[in-house]
């Protein structure tokens, strides 16, 4: 099966396989001791926005539109960009998510800084691809972690909830399966993700511009967006934790297991609970992946022939004349 993350994994593999510090086991040497000119070419191989859009068209083949012609700026959700540089505020619901790659600092023991930077860049770009593929917006990049939003004007909360769960499931799959399998063959262990997602309703989320001049962002003030990083730290290896509001949207208990400790005490007798999300079961049930007899998951991301419309491949097939004749 085709894998939407192969373009990112392939570049990471090349960087690891060519890293002179690792090959020669010269772990104490400085990066200046090595010729790292090849890294620039490898970085250029990572998918661009154009490649991302072509991947979507080939993968779906069912009329799915391009991600976007230009990704929104960081710290500026397009529905609330008018708040930038102003003192105005606005109440509007949003789903916030945070995903972080853990144990990645150990890479510095094995590889040059250039290789570590490329590995991190590959993971970040793959995650951005998954988020935008599922209708989300990247709010902030924090090292090898992402803070993202799902939802906005004209979007149903249930739709945004499903999009957020799908995007974070895809990211978790990439790190748990593709990256982990390759890293472990090279003696790199324990690298994993932890993620969390929660929803704040209209009366619980205040949008505003925070900062000074260009050193600022359009962001949210909400208990529920603030709880997301805290919940992320409570996730198991390659796990996703969600808040009570997310569970209420989906209304399918089979995907959620309540944690013994609440994530928040309102100090008035009420508690807000967090739940482990069974993302592997979710992507199988929602026809995003299949599981073999050994229990291993494989993404179902290849083009399908059911209701296939050749017009959807026009932007790509146009480059392959004379076969393009739609």
- Low-pLDDT residue intervals, each spanning 5 or more residues: 57-68, 302-313, 319-326
Mean pLDDT, as a whole number? 83
CATH class, named Alpha Beta
Distance between the termini: 27 Å
Structural class: alpha+beta
How many DSSP helices?
Answer: 10
**Strand order in the sheet with the most strands:** 3-4-2-5-8-12-9
Beta strand count: 14
Number of domains: 1
Helix fraction, binned, reads 25-40%
Radius of gyration (Å): 21 Å
Strand content: 15-25%
Q: Main β-sheet, in a few words?
A: 7 strands, mixed
Mind explaining what this structure looks like?
- The structure is a single chain.
- By secondary structure, this protein is of the alpha+beta class.
- It has one domain (about 5-320): Nucleotide cyclase, GGDEF domain (Alpha-Beta Plaits), CATH 3.30.70.1230.
- It is about 35% helix and about 20% strand.
- A hairpin with a 2-residue loop joins strand 6 (about 205-210) and strand 7 (about 215-220).
- About 35% of the residues are buried.
- The model is unreliable at about 55-70, about 300-315 and about 320-325 (pLDDT under 50).
Q: What topology does this entry show?
A:
Elements: H1 6-18, H2 20-23, H3 38-45, H4 49-60, E1 89-91, E2 94-102, H5 113-133, E3 136-142, E4 145-150, H6 157-185, E5 192-200, E6 206-212, E7 215-221, H7 223-232, E8 239-243, H8 244-250, E9 256-258, E10 264-265, E11 271-272, E12 274-277, H9 279-285, E13 289-291, E14 297-299, H10 314-317
Give a quick rundown of the structure.
The protein is an alpha+beta fold.
Attribute tags:
alpha+beta, 3-stranded antiparallel sheet, 326 residues, 7-stranded mixed sheet, single chain, disordered C terminus, globular, Alpha-Beta Plaits
């Amino acid at each position: 099966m085709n894998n939407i993350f192969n373009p990112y994994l392939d570049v990471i593999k090349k960087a690891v396989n060519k890293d002179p510090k690792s090959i020669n086991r010269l772990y104490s040497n400085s990066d200046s001791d090595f010729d790292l000119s090849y890294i620039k070419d490898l970085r250029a191989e990572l998918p661009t926005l154009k490649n991302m859009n072509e991947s979507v068209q080939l993968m779906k083949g069912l009329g799915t539109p391009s991600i976007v012609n230009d990704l929104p700026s960081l710290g500026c959700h397009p529905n609330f960009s008018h708040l930038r540089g102003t003192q105005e505020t606005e109440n509007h619901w949003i789903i916030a998510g945070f995903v972080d790659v853990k144990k990645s600092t150990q890479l510095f023991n094995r590889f040059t800084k250039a290789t570590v930077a490329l590995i991190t860049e590959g993971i970040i770009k793959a995650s951005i691809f998954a988020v935008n593929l599922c209708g989300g917006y990247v709010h902030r990049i924090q090292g090898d972690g992402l803070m993202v939003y799902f939802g906005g004007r004209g979007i149903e909360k249930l739709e945004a909830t499903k999009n957020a769960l799908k995007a974070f499931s895809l990211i978790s799959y990439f790190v748990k399966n593709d990256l982990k399998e390759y890293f472990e063959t090279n003696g790199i262990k324990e690298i994993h993700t932890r993620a969390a997602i929660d929803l704040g309703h209209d009366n619980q989320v205040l949008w505003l511009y925070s900062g000074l001049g260009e050193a600022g962002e359009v962001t949210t003030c909400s208990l529920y967006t603030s709880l997301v990083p805290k919940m992320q730290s409570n996730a198991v290896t390659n796990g996703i934790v969600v808040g009570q509001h997310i569970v209420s949207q989906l209304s399918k208990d089979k995907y959620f297991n309540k944690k013994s400790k609440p994530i928040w005490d309102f100090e008035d007798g009420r508690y807000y609970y967090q739940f482990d999300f069974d993302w592997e079961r979710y992507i199988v049930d929602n026809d995003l992946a299949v599981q073999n007899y050994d229990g291993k998951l494989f993404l179902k991301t290849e083009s399908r022939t059911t209701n296939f419309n050749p017009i959807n491949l026009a932007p790509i097939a146009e480059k392959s004349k004379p076969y393009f004749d739609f």
